[in-house]
Amino acid sequence: MADTRDMYMAHTALRREFRLLPDLIRSVPPGDARRAEVVSAHAALVCRILHTHHEGEDKLLWPKLVERAGVDAEVIVPMMEQQHHAIEELHAEVTGLLGSWRATAEGGEKLAEACERLLTVLIQHMALEEKQILPLAARYVTATEWHELGEHGMASTPKKDLPLVFGMAMYEGDPEVIKAVLATAPLPVRLIVPVLGRRRYAAHARQVHGTVRPARVGS
Fold first, then answer.
1. What distance in Å separates the CA atoms of residue 16 and residue 27, rounded to the nearest whole number?
2. What band does 70 get if pLDDT is binned at 50, 70 and 90?
3. Rounded to an integer, what distance in angstroms lies between the CA atom of residue 128 and that of residue 183?
């Protein structure tokens, strides 16, 4: 059956990047379009990751749990769907504000506040998902079906961004979980991707956060 540990790793990366985003935006001086471009490109990336992550769950996870988990899914899956709708509305607000801020570096406080609202709902959602959904997935979803979630994410992500996205997830990831995620990949991929992912995220973090070791979720 499904090994859901990779979901915790993905959630940790999302918590970290969305938690750091409001202060990143506020740190950009008004009118500094060059720095706003760097931060907004990062914000757009993590917003795309979030959208793809939830899209995969909507298409590939909720229907299976409704079909198989019976009474255990009757309340929690509709709640997950409602929370996804709420997150998508806040996501749309953030991405809508992001475009103008990216071009002018003006209106950063409004954007930062929208990111904070999104973060609040997102943290609540992921905590509930980890507590109630992942145990159901481990009981009712096969390993092959679970891997389809990862395949959806990879197919929806530009190839040039895949090493960075994987490195972003690896940053606080359990080495055993990382190994399990790559277990079915060809040997060259298993050898190269962890090294390339770490390098890409370190370079990205230096540019965006000013350090190769941005604050971890647990720190």
1. 17
2. very high
3. 28
Type of residue at 192: I
Residue 95 has pLDDT above 90, yes or no: yes
According to DSSP, residue 193 is labeled H
Rounded to 5°, angle at Cα 34 from 30 and 40: 80
Domains of the chain (ranges, CATH numbers): 5-157 (1.20.120.520)
In whole angstroms, what is the distance from residue 37 CA to residue 35 CA?
5
For residue 199, what are its two tokens? 């390098």
Beta carbons within 8 Å of 2's beta carbon, 6+ residues apart = 137, 138, 141, 142, 143, 145, 146
Q: What share of the chain is helix, strand, coil (3-state, %, to 5)?
A: 80, 0, 20
Q: How far from 140 is each of 8, 58, 133, CA to CA, in Å?
A: 18, 16, 10
CB 27 within 8 A of CB 209: no
- Report pLDDT digits (tens) over 138-151: 999 999 999 999 99
Contact predicate 20/116, CB 8 Å: no
List pLDDT tens digits, range 1-58: 999 999 999 999 999 999 999 999 999 999 999 999 999 999 999 999 999 999 999 9
Tell me the mean pLDDT in the region 119-134. 98
Q: What angle do CA 128, 132, 134 make, to 5 degrees?
A: 105
Q: What is the pTM of this model?
A: 0.95
